[in-house]
Amino acid sequence: MATSDHYQGAAMSTDNQDLVTISLTHHGKPHTFSHPRDATISDLSDSISSTLSVPASNQKLLVSQLGLLKPPFKDPTLALSNISGKKITLMGSTADEATAIATAAEHASRRATRRGLPNQRVSAYKTRDWKKEQEESQYTFTTLRPLPYLPNPQRSLAFLQRLKDDAGIKTAMRKHKFTVPLLTEMNPIEHTQSNHEGTSRTLGLNRNQGEVIELRLRTDAYDGYRDYKTIRNTLCHELAHNVHGPHDRNFWDLCKLIEKEVEAADWKSGGRAVGQEEFYEGGKDEDEVDDHGGWSGGEFVLGASREGGAESTGTKVTQGFSRREILAKAAEERIKRLREQQGGENTGSGSS
Prior knowledge:
Layout: E1 9-10, E2 19-26, E3 29-36, H1 41-52, E4 60-63, E5 67-69, E6 87-91, H2 95-116, H3 130-138, E7 141-145, H4 153-165, H5 167-176, E8 180-185, E9 192-195, E10 198-202, E11 204-207, E12 212-215, E13 225-226, H6 228-240, H7 249-265, E14 273-274, E15 277-280, E16 288-289, E17 306-307, E18 310-311, H8 323-351
Parallel strand pairs: 7-8, 8-12, 10-16, 13-15
Antiparallel strand pairs: 1-6, 2-3, 4-5, 4-6, 9-10, 11-12, 14-15, 17-18
Organism: Venustampulla echinocandica
Region (Disordered): 283-323
GO molecular function, one term: proteasome binding
């Protein structure tokens, strides 16, 4: 499993006419690599693999003005002299770190599964619902992935596992035949935007009709986790984007239907904690938006920054709207839904 760490560094060229020296930091420590002046980005990747034990498959180099570069490089002949004087970020875990995270993830998954099993007496004549079990194994989240560079990724993994094992979520996914290859968490700081108009927070993202779903699990200060049922409702919202991208009437009808199905099938209490940790109990702020609609295209990079709900991979998937226009549209949708709800209540009270 490829994971990421985010550190900043710098690149510079030495005065030596025959060598170019690249300096970068990884895990908070500076590292220097010297290469012949005709060396390429591929040569630097080989040096990182041999010196820092970061496999090429895990390497991501964030170079200022050039963006994200990772093997296999689009231009493997890019000269190192071309990135002299540019800031560099090396993101990537060593082979040992990746193995440790995978092992911890497996253990957390097993513990969460054991905790979710109710205590029952053995019945000699109890029959198993094989069709239900087969459908639940098919219509589910194939991979759960926390952000390994944030504090306590095991807690985030347990949170994602709890969502996957939620009786209501399992029922809704089986009914609508939803299979999501990757369920992951988002980094709050990368999805919080502040300007003169205020601060907005994105709660969830859905790419390519369910290829990847990201959820805002943590508080802004990284000191806790948000309310479980609020995040579960966000997941219902993102699952509705598996069918409908824009926030039109069809989308909201499906979203509300999934929320009702999940709530009705929730035979567990829903709880307030992962392990013994308390959730953030605040309600949804006015400046929080579910998302900016389902989006497509681009290459998914775990933990990569996004603009307007789309990942910054060279193409903004905002259909030509500015961020202000997108937020305004989301606000209009919320006002419209509120008026519809109030109108329904007034109609009901008048007829009774």
